[in-house]
Amino acid sequence: MKMRTTFGNVMLVAALGLASFAGRAAAQTGGELRFCLRMEPKTFDPLKVEDEASAAIRYLTGGTLVRVNRQSQELEPELALTWKVSKDGRQISFRLRNGVSFSDGTSFSAEDVAYTMQQLMDPALHSPTGDAFRSGAGSVETKVISPTQISITFPAPVAGLDRLFDQVAILSQHSPKKELAVLGPFMLGEYKPGASVLLKRNPNYWKADEQGHKLPYLDSIHLDIQPNRDVEMLRFKRGELDLINSLDSEYFDKLAATSPQLVHDAGPSLDSEQLWFNEVAKAPIPAYKKTWFRSASFRRAISEAINREDLSRVVFHGHAQPAVGPFSPANKFWFNSKLKPQVYDSNAALKALQNEGFRLENGTLKDKDGNAVVFSIITNAGSKIRERMAVLIQDDLQKIGIHVNVVTLDFPSLIERMTQTYDYEAIILGLTNVDLDPNGEMNVWLSSAENHQWNPQQKTPETAWEAEIDRLMRAQASSTDPKKRKEAFDRVQEIVVEQEPFIFLINKNSLSAVSTMVRGAVPVILSPQTFWNAERLTVAAK
Amino acid sequence: MNLWRKLACALLAIVLCASAAANWLAPEGYARQDREAISVPPSRAHWLGTDELGRDRFARVLYGTRISLLLAPAAALLSTLMAALIGGLAGYLGGVWARMAMAVTDLFLSLPWLFLLITTRALMPLNVSPLFSVIVTFLLLGLLGWTTAARILCATAASLRTADFVRQARAAGVRGQRLFWIHVMPNLKPVLYAQFWISIPVFILSEANLGILGLGVAEPMPSWGSLLKELEGLVSVGEEPWKFVPLALLVLVVMSFQFLLSNQEEVAA
Q1: A79-88, A328-337, B90-99, B120-129: lowest mean pLDDT where?
Q2: CA A316 from centroid of its chain's CA atoms
Q3: In Å, how far from its chain's centre is CA A15?
Q4: What digits encode the pLDDT tens for the residues A294-320?
Q5: Is A84 exposed, middle or buried, given 0-12, 13-18 or 19+ CB atoms closer than 10 A?
């Protein structure tokens, strides 16, 4: 009897052990998630990210000290257990988790955080992420107090300092794999240029779920590089893809008609589409065109001549709203609610141009020197949305005698013209906003920043209004009083609407599609809308 | 003239006359946007419905026919003539000339066309008229599209060099250019015709795809290629079969030309 009992107990323990192992194994065997990147990632270095594809990979592989929960929009601890921002907003101290390793087994410590900050703020690197931290002249000091404690001191106060670390993926100072040694849930497995990126589960990922199961659940994430949205849609319908992170309105309606359970409209997003003119002084375009483009009156008239309601209705099938300014009304706190939407009035636009010396001759608008108002709008080929917006704008401006040539270019050529050769006249592109806080757009609004797209990297502000925006952005970035920050940024929005360096066109809704095979997905408006909680997603076996 | 050739003639005449009369048949033009009638099906107001910007598809097919019917065959003719000259002559002359010509052909075949086209786009001003843009596009296609046919023609011409009728002509005192143009070249016609007819639809589709590089027909000007791009949205074509009209037109026109020209070959023989 005793032997049977002992044997029974052993079997019970063994069975429980097996069940426990199976449970852990089941929790970890989450399948492979498949979706598309719309373009080739430009870099795997998290500090140099400035395109959407690279940002997606950084999000999935990078370990950050804190993370903005994309659903609740609250800041949550990650690699940092606790943090404290000093009253003057110049210093932040982190207490880090112990026993964490990079994907290659190298230990994580405060030294890695110090190293990352040094790299981030290195002016030679021109890190777009680092721009958000630049609040004033001087260098950033890091002090490693212990392997799990670090304080970082900035030369001037940085508003919303803690939230900015959501974008900073920590690099290893000691790993021979450099930026490929990661702290996030996934790591780079394979990269086939032009084809795909495979991210594998990081075996050393520190996080576990509430039941103690190691995360991520997924075995891997397969990212196909597919700029063609028709092909992406077809593959999703065939079940070859599990989600479409950002769905065009046309496909949303078609998919909703047949499979409403697959589509999600999370409402107005933070993203915008805009048109801007090349205001770079050294741009290789005729001087008389530079004169037009650098005139705020000209830009305002163009803005007035564009029918945004039609853009929303025709191009986005009603899944968008005319943009009012740089921030979407979805950003409830920061949006300047006093701003009025631009009213479409082509007659008023023409009159405004005529007041500036332009005249209409035989259906063609000419400037005071007799030059016909002809310019090109470039946008990225493959984006039907932007191509259609460009053609609608071409038609709108034709009504006031302006002839527009629409040119679609492959994305690398477009970026090269925009950022290096400045050989363009006008562009339609979009802004993807990751954060609610305007600090996330320091690299756009500062006149010295790389992404100050209409006239980037100015040594000193070339216009009084850009100098004013610089001052206001630095002021709000260095204040810890939300009310003062709001006042400053409200004024930035007013200046932008007055001067129209960006002619904001629309704010589109956050539309996505998720297969029913994916468990745990909760589409939201903050990017990345569908895989923000990738570490907790699973894909049912097909 | 048999029934098929009559039908081919009639079809071509209708297509050509309709495209020439586009200004009367579709007086509103190809660019006018009816923003209240987006992607509507065929109706009395819009015989082939409207596209995603409310433009009348029938008008765009008519005006697009002018571009494609004029320029695609012109580009095909250019590439065929180049293939004939380079490949045919090289094969006829043989020896070091053939080797040099084929080396040049191989070089062209190995060139990364994509970078050449990107460079062309980079060198071209952004503000060119849609017509200039489409002419440059088809010119490029013609200048680059001769290589494959040149190799075939070289081999064919080389085999004809030793053919009995050529030997007979030589024996009769015919030499040089006369021998090439009067005796060899006519026997290359079947290959030339095939090359020409294959090239037309290839160039029409290539023109549409070049849009991704900023070449091709610029908006709002239509072409068969840009209209065929609507078929890329395969999720909706089953519900909108009228989008197949440009494809049907392309097939019918190419077949009609083939019917007519094959008749001329029979008569000549």
Answers
A1: B120-129
A2: 20
A3: 48
A4: 999 999 999 999 999 999 999 999 999
A5: exposed
Task: Give the three-class secondary structure for A221.
Answer: strand
Where do the domains of chain A lie? 30-62+184-242+515-542, 63-170, 272-509
With CA atoms as reference, report the closest residue to A37 among A22, A19, A55, A21: A55
Residues 6+ apart with CB under 8 A from B129: A405, B218
- Indicate whether A152 pLDDT > 60: yes
Residue A318 to residue A120: CA distance in whole angstroms: 41
| φ, ψ (nearest 5 deg) of residue A529 | -60, -35
Structure tokens at A291: 């004169």
Q: Which pLDDT band holds residue B237 (cuts at 50, 70, 90)?
A: low
d(CA A41, CA A49) in angstroms, rounded, equals 9
Structure tokens at A326: 């740089």
pLDDT in tens, A239-285: 999 999 999 888 899 899 889 999 999 988 998 999 999 999 999 99
Of A233, A375, A409, the CB nearest to B235: A233
- Binary contact (B212, A382; C-beta < 8 A): yes
* Half-sphere exposure for A43 (CA within 13 Å, toward CB): 11
B52 contacts on A by Cβ (under 8 Å): 250, 314, 384, 388
Q: Are B36 and B99 in contact (CB under 8 A)?
A: no
CATH (residue range A63-170): 3.90.76.10
Q: Is A112 on the interface with B (CB under 8 A)?
A: no
Residues 6+ apart with CB under 8 A from A374: A402, A403, A404, A405, B127
Distance from CA of B52 to the nearest CA of A (A): 8
Q: Read off the pLDDT of each residue in A470-490 and give the average, rounded to a whole number.
A: 90
Q: Residue B228 maps to which CATH number?
A: 1.10.3720.10
Nearest chain A residue (CA) to B53: A314
Rounded CA separation A153/B268 (Å): 91
Give the pairing of strands A220-225 and A149-153.
Answer: unpaired
The fold adopted by the segment(s) A272-509 is Dipeptide-binding Protein; domain 3 (3.10.105)
Bridge partner residues of A272 (DSSP): A431
The pair of three-digit structure tokens given for residue B38, joined into one six-digit string: 């987006």
Do the chains contact at A392 and B127, CB–CB below 8 Å? no
CA count, 13 A, side-chain hemisphere, A232: 27
Say if residues B26 and B56 touch (Cβ distance below 8 Å).
Answer: yes
What is the domain range of residue B91? 3-268
* Residue bearing the bigger pLDDT, A13 or B85: B85
Q: Please give the CATH topology (third level) of the domain spanning A30-62+184-242+515-542.
A: D-Maltodextrin-Binding Protein; domain 2 (3.40.190)
* Tokens encoding A315: 């191009």
> Which of the residues B50, B55, B134, B212 would you substitute to probe the A interface, choosing the one with the greatest number of A C-beta atoms within 10 Å?
B212
pLDDT > 70 fraction of chain A, expressed in percent and rounded: 94
Q: Which of B38, B126, B233 minimises the CB distance to A378? A: B126
Q: Which two tokens stand for residue B145?
A: 């599209």
Distances (CA, A) of A146 to A83, A86, A465, B166: 15, 19, 46, 93
Instruction: Write out the two tokens for A20.
Output: 């426990």
Does this model's pTM top 0.80? My answer is no
Mutate to test the interface with A, among B56, B113, B127 (most CBs of A within 10 A): B127
Residues A392/B53, Cβ–Cβ less than 8 Å = yes
Question: What percent of chain B lies above the pLDDT cut of 70?
Answer: 92
CA B197 – CA B73 distance, rounded (Å): 8
**B180 vs B157: CA distance, rounded Å:** 9
Per-residue DSSP letter, B187: G
**Considering its fold, how many domains does chain B have in total?**
1
Using DSSP's 3-state secondary structure scheme, residue A149 falls into strand
**Can you count the helices (H) and strands (E) in chain B?**
14, 0
